Amino acid sequence: MTNATSTYETTYARLSRPVLKSRARAPGSLAQAVEAAVDCLDPESLTALGVSKRGSVLQSRALLASLAFCYARQVYSSKTIAAQLLRDPKLRLAGVQLPDAQILQQFRQNNRVALKFCLQSALLFLADEKVRQGVVTHVKEAHMREEAGRRIVMAMFTDSLENDPSPGASPGTNSYPYLVD
Which of 12, 68, 112, 118 has the maximal Cβ count within 10 Å? Predict the structure, then answer.
């Protein structure tokens, strides 16, 4: 095991089972589950990305919540997430400097442990909802931890496809013919 891997596992181990079991009142929605997970994290543990043109620090906690929510809903493309944020009228009216796809990718890379924790919390919430509805009978926490990691890798893969078209492909064409929409 490499030092980076052991540091990752140690940091992740310090984050207790996501907030569904530790809160006095269970979250009632996916957004509340993500928000509760973000609230469990030490703000100092997040790597901020810098200052925008307007001088305000990019909101690391809001970015973390946005990515965890989107990945839980199987929206992996940073370009799609950035476009969704741009369409949010509340954010536009607030005059907030919104992240582009590159900032989202950098944030994901720098805050992967925290993102995995929040995503696992979101997935546990969704799984517990399926248990409550009778769709499934039980949830394995280890499976949710693996699924959170898989979804982060899926987001990285999706972004790599969007950012690295094959040589000679013209813009807007499917440069990966083995991927069919």
Answer: 118
